[in-house]
């Protein structure tokens, strides 16, 4: 009698659970671990209050928005990027939007390519605040060009900036964190750090390199259970990333930037990142649909993912060659002549 009751309960609860998950997934804009943390986990306002957070690439886009939201949480900030005037603008707005005082926000101009300067910059940050709780490796540039047309020096520049620059800053901060036995190193990778996308061979390689580096660093640090290594993989987010992207030649700017409408608002992306940081989430997938589905396909059914990537990818390449917005291949119906 009991067995029969359990069986019939399972028969209707399992499909209901499955349907509920499917429904949630249709409206999800992050992986389930991160969404669970955003619903049930610690609030960034509580967990990040008073912490010293170093954000690279804080002069625009995701890094700028992270700075504002961190200031709102009461975190003390080290803001880095190359453009000091932009960093000062971000600092002013941080102070306007929070109870932070002038000395709580340090503007620390830094070029990720100038690796010899990173040790000195780290010392300056430590001298100012005494310690660093969180490093957010956010600074970087994308790439928009066909492999056949891209000069090797572009690939070198992308790797030097996105990969070696990030590794260099991390290696300066890490001994300080292992010395204290705690800290958080958060690296903004990308969906292209997990998957492949045409027109981004170098960018994707640099983000894959970061994923490999930090996924291998994490198990090296098991003696430090309070030192968290996190990678963040956003899909398309509103920012200056396409405008600033590398092209086939080192000093050539991008011609077609395209619309930002379809992209995730920067504020939502930053909020989810901070939820992940506050709750020690190790890998964060942040994207609206249908991109989120794409992450799951790449993770669990790669053969199907490759098929779809080829299908959409060829439209993207055609658009690019025709001088159109390459991203419109994913979001709008193609005009046929
Ligand atoms: N937006 C997206 O769709 C998206 C998706 C996935 C991942 N991401 C990642 O998110 C991160 C932030 O990008 P974003 O979208 O916010 O783009 P963004 O608006 O172009 O911001 C890039 C930031 O990186 C800094 N930067 C560039 N070169 C630098 C250098 N040599 N040294 C130091 N800082 C440098 C820029 O500041 P300065 O020019 O002042 O130096 C700027 O603050 C990047 O790592 C990007 O790969 C973005």
UniProtKB/TrEMBL annotation:
Gene Ontology molecular functions: oxidoreductase activity
Native organism taxonomy: Eukaryota, Metazoa, Chordata, Craniata, Vertebrata
Gene3D superfamilies (UniProt xref): NAD(P)-binding Rossmann-like Domain (3.40.50.720)
Keywords: Oxidoreductase
Organism of derivation: Salarias fasciatus
Gene name, Swiss-Prot/TrEMBL: dhrs7
One Pfam family named in its UniProt record: adh_short
Coiled-coil annotated residue ranges, if any: none
Keyword rRNA-binding: no
Family: Belongs to the short-chain dehydrogenases/reductases (SDR) family.
InterPro entries documented for this protein: NAD(P)-bd_dom_sf (IPR036291), Sc_DH/Rdtase_CS (IPR020904), SDR_fam (IPR002347), SDR_family_member_7 (IPR053011)
Record's protein name: Dehydrogenase/reductase (SDR family) member 7
Keyword Thylakoid in annotation: no
């Amino acid at each position: 009698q009991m067995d029969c009751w359990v069986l019939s309960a399972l028969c209707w609860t399992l499909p209901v659970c499955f349907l509920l998950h499917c429904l949630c997934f249709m409206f999800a804009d992050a992986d389930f671990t991160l969404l669970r943390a955003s619903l049930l986990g610690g609030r960034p306002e509580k967990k990040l209050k008073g912490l010293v957070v170093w954000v690279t690439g804080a002069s625009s886009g995701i890094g700028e928005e992270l700075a504002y939201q961190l200031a709102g949480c009461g975190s003390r900030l080290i803001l880095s990027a190359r453009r000091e005037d932009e960093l000062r603008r971000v600092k002013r707005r941080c102070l306007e939007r929070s109870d932070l005082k002038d000395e709580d926000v340090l503007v620390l101009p830094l070029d990720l390519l100038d690796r010899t300067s990173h040790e000195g910059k780290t010392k300056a940050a430590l001298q100012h605040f005494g310690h660093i709780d969180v490093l957010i490796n956010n600074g970087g540039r994308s790439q928009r060009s066909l492999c056949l047309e891209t000069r090797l020096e572009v690939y070198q520049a992308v790797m030097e900036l996105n990969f070696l620059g990030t590794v260099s800053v991390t290696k300066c901060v890490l001994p300080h964190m292992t010395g204290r036995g705690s800290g958080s190193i958060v690296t903004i990778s990308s969906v292209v750090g997990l998957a492949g996308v045409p027109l981004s061979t170098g960018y994707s390689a640099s983000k894959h390199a970061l994923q490999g580096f930090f996924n291998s660093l994490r198990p090296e640090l098991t003696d430090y259970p309070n030192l968290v290594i996190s990678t963040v993989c956003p899909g398309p987010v509103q920012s200056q990333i396409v405008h600033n992207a590398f092209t086939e030649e080192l000093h050539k700017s991008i011609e077609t930037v395209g619309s930002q409408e379809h992209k995730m608002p920067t504020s939502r992306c930053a909020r989810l990142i901070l939820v992940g940081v506050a709750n020690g989430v190790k890998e964060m997938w942040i994207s609206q649909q249908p991109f989120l589905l794409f992450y799951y396909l790449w993770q669990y059914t790669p053969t199907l993912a490759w098929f779809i990537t080829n299908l959409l990818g060829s439209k993207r390449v055609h658009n690019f060659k025709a001088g159109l917005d390459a991203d419109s291949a994913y979001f709008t119906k193609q005009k046929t002549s």
